[in-house]
Amino acid sequence: MFQDQLAEKVRPFIDLIDYMRSIGIDKELPLPTIAVVGDQSSGKSSVLETLSGVALPRGTGIVTRCPLLLKLCNDRTVKWEAVISYGGKVFEFDEPSEVVRYVEQAQNTLAGKGVGICEDLITLKITSSTVCDLSLIDLPGITRVAVKGQPEDIGVQINNLITKFIKNKRTIILVVVPCNVDIATTEALKMAQEMDPEGTRTLAILTKPDLIDPGAEKNVLEIVHNRVIFLSMGYVIVKCRVQKQIDENMSIARAIEEELEFFQNHEHFRSLVREEKATTKYLAKKLTNALFKQIKTYLPQMSEKIKEQLGEVKHSLSKLEGGPPLEPEEKRKYLIQVITDFNEQITQLSKGDIIVEENLFVLMRKEFTQWMKCLENDKSNYHRVVQQLVDEYDQEHRGSELPGFSNYRVFQHVVQKLVAKLKIPAMTTLQKIRDSLCLHGIFIFSNIVKERIVEQFEMEMQVYTQDEIFHKVMLEAEAHILEEGEIADDKEQDTRSKYPELLKAYYEIVVQRLADQVPMLIRYFILKQSAKIVCSEMLDLLHRDDTDNILQEDSEIGQYRAKLQAQADRLLLANDKISSL
Prior knowledge:
Largest sheet: 9 strands, mixed
Main location: cytoplasm
Subcellular location: Cytoplasm
Structural class: alpha/beta
Low-confidence stretches: 487-496
Number of domains: 3
Radius of gyration: 43 Å
Domain Dynamin-type G: 28-300
Keywords: Cytoplasm, GTP-binding, Nucleotide-binding
Number of strands: 9
Helix content: 55-70%
Family: Belongs to the TRAFAC class dynamin-like GTPase superfamily. Dynamin/Fzo/YdjA family.
CATH architecture of the largest domain: 3-Layer(aba) Sandwich
Distance between the termini: 28 Å
């Protein structure tokens, strides 16, 4: 009937979109399509029957309960054959009369028996020598009131389902409206205007012209000529089989002949045939050309988007790497390789040879600099604190000895108190470095270095340094005092008056020791020793017999990898298909 409506160059483009939808590319990006929208009893089913050449489910209430992708393929060598697929099931048949049964069976499987709806897609491919090359999606008819057995929000469910399809800017909205109603009040056209306010991708079909009240023909002509509600794609008026003709088993071929006769003989509408604004035959031609243009327009963008997404998915897969092998003999080789690679990376990481976002030594150097500033700040407050501690200790602990006699316990006590104050900032430095490395996904044995730092401070509680070192530092301190002209009062010229200078000299030695020793401990035990321990424990895995348990992959990771791989396969197939077009 419509086999001459499409040039051969168009078929590959429609096949391309059908193929991409079949492999699931519509999950990755929106595809150009035609979505059929109409109120219940708008004549939507009759239009689709005429285009497809077969009867579709009919009745009162909601008839289309699942989105139905109708793929029409013209093939002069095939009389008639069909394939219906849904939910992983595929059925082939060659009797047009079986379409209704198979579609109803599919809807009952997906949406359940009754009057509920479902978003799952049913695909019906019809190949015949009498159909046009076209693909479109039939959506449930719009309803406002729930009938017996339907959920109260059935209207909302249907609107949401329709919106899901027509909000895609690449979808041509095919609105079906009866001629005998006020077009401005139809819910279908309102929904189309919400999703396509400029009317650039909406095409309206006017049905039931034989039911127009006498005298209303001029109003219909105004609509068809785009003078009432403007749509860039315009309007087409059609006349399909009425219920009486269906009951009398009038063939669709005969109905198409009568449709042409109706318009050619109609006093008001005969001009629309010449203008190519009437008959289902012209509708088929217009729809096919519209879909072809839509596909050609968006094909370059789709190609770029597919390549972009393919690159992103491949990058994600490369980060996951491959999973463990399934063959037992390969598993041990795989484990050895993984452990070898891991230990090599850990060792290089501990040496600073591998950069992870920011070099580990850079991270630690920042914290070590802060540690040094903390020590310097503590030295700047030294005079006030030391003199106060000496006075307090002398008043509380000096025995019967006369002023001027040395008391080493005072010196030792003050040193221990000053050193103890530095323990907290040292531990804070360790904690900051530990937290920073953990954020980079680097596991460390911080307890080991914590114990060593505690030991270091316990050793510092033993007041000790080489005599030569102490004398040298003391002389430098005394020379500094003489330069500044600091002279103590006679009353304070006992041994205590020298405590601040002695303490300052010794404290300088302590600061120099801790300034280097704490960072060295942290570097050694956090990096070197942690790396050794980790590598040793990893090598121990090779001596275990439970290789399967060791290589058991987290189920979520495996599922995520499988999902990415399936996505990559889809995109690769789509990219190859576009390239071959």
